[in-house]
Amino acid sequence: MFAASILNIFPLQDSTGVLVFIVTFLLIYWSTRRHPGIPPGPGRWPIIGNLGSLAGPDKLKVFRDLRLKYGDVFALYFGSELTVILNGYEAIKDAFLKQGRQFSFRPENDFVRRSVISNLIFGNGPECKAKRVCIMNAFRDLCFTRNGVVLEQIVHDELDFLIEIITKNAKAFCPRKTMSMSFASVIFNILHGKRPERGEKRFQWYMDTLDQGFEVFLRSQVRHYCFPWLDKLPGDLLRLQYAKDVSVSVSEFFEEIFKEREAASLPGSRDCLLDFFLSEDSPVARDEIWKCHHDLMGAGSETSATTMNWMILLLALYPDVQAKLYAEITRKIGKELPAISDRSKIPYVEAVILETLRIGSIVPLGVPHFVKEDVSFRGFYIPNGTTIIANVTSVHHDPSVFPDPFAFRPERFLDESGRVLQASEQVIPFSMGQRSCIGESIARIELFLYVTRIVQNVEFRLPAGCKRPTLNGVFGITYRPEDYNVDIAKRN
Q1: Quick one: which residues bind heme (predicted)?
Q2: Is residue 466 part of an annotated ligand binding site?
Q3: Every domain of the chain and the residues it spans
Q4: Which of 77, 98, 103, 111 could tie 224 with a disulfide, CB 3.0–4.6 Å?
């Protein structure tokens, strides 16, 4: 009726222009309208959605400002994809724990399905659950039998090598890549039954490929949401061909390792995760094992390495905390190798780790969740197919929970005597609910052993005459500090 009325008003020769106007108007209307009943958010632009609202060098500050304006639950459009952002501990808890059945899925779209990522991290359904159970059982058997002595030995062997490397540095150095290689060696050992050879070029190539893959995945995902038709154009604009090429190279890298392990291991052995995956009752198909290992290498190494990267920076910036940490370690265990059983003896170490995880917020927006049905949440309508993001930093940097949130104060996690660690459920670097990190227990033990052993042996100092580093981070799969240099002094 509207179109007919317009055409009656205008002469025939103007009808084409009017139709173009109507079609353009409707396209703009439909591409900028917000679903009725969804959480509030900024106005939506054609094609790019709310990407313009995220402009600015400090993305975490952008999310803080959006929370102040729209509340703990707000919605953004990445292109045409609706995404709901959860802020604050209670909102995240309500979704992932109280309504966990509805919020425990991972996004399902063509880009994720065509990427190198396995369905261990981004999968849904019984197959994914079976893999998680298998891995968790394997980690328990491999790392935590006999009070965790196997895991302790793996970590201490790696720390022997790491401390030897860093104490040889006569000049100030940036610890980022060194820490990444070290933690990657630990998870590689758990997965494959041995650490990579020193200076092994193929492993270095793999780590570089892993690091580059994170950045490519993030950029390509945003392009896919806004311009899904780009894969129809000439050129690898969505980097899908790149993902295929990487997939082939990485699968060949792991296949060499798998064949070597199969030839060397005894029938029925269960000495590394690969043995579990190669067993007859494994829920992982033979040609899918490499993808699981690829995911675990990335998730199991880079998060812990980034935590240590923040830790070293914070200890250098706060020498009083570093001195107290060293004094506590020396008083409780001296020069003895730290053991898992020592964690309760040195609550200050655990407090320093908690405070580092809180300030660093290593995975600031977590791994995306997804709803596969219409959901009612806190009075809002969340339609089927919506991506859900938990803004972890909104919890960790909330001044109402952690006063002066950007100050490094491990004492906030200790009682008045400073001797008893007070657990804080509101430090959630590993997320919560059914899709929380399956390697959390291993990561916490790794960090305890790394921090204790490294501080026993070296002191970190800011180089004289250099500009003081900031706590600004680089936003990506993990949130790491900007590259910085430190001097290392070997302790007597």
Answers
A1: 437
A2: no
A3: 33-490
A4: 111
